[in-house]
């Protein structure tokens, strides 16, 4: 999962669980998401996974 790029579908902010869509096994699936650093990431932003906590939680930062 680390390194995968996805799109925010539920606002991500410190202390708030957001949601992202990520490509997995040829499909796109939703995952709970937290910011990797103290930042707010709005819906529609492109993100990259920096850590993965199975089964469905990721830590993300903005994709450059």
TrEMBL record:
Organism, scientific name: Kribbella yunnanensis
InterPro entries (alphabetical): NA-bd_OB-fold
Protein name: Uncharacterized protein
Highest taxon of the lineage: Bacteria
């Amino acid at each position: 999962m680390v390194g995968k790029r996805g799109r925010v579908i539920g606002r991500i902010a410190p202390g708030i669980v957001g949601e992202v869509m990520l490509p997995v096994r040829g499909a796109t699936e939703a995952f709970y998401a937290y910011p990797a650093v103290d930042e707010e990431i709005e819906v529609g932003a492109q993100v990259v996974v920096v850590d993965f906590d199975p089964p469905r939680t990721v830590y993300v930062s903005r994709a450059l």
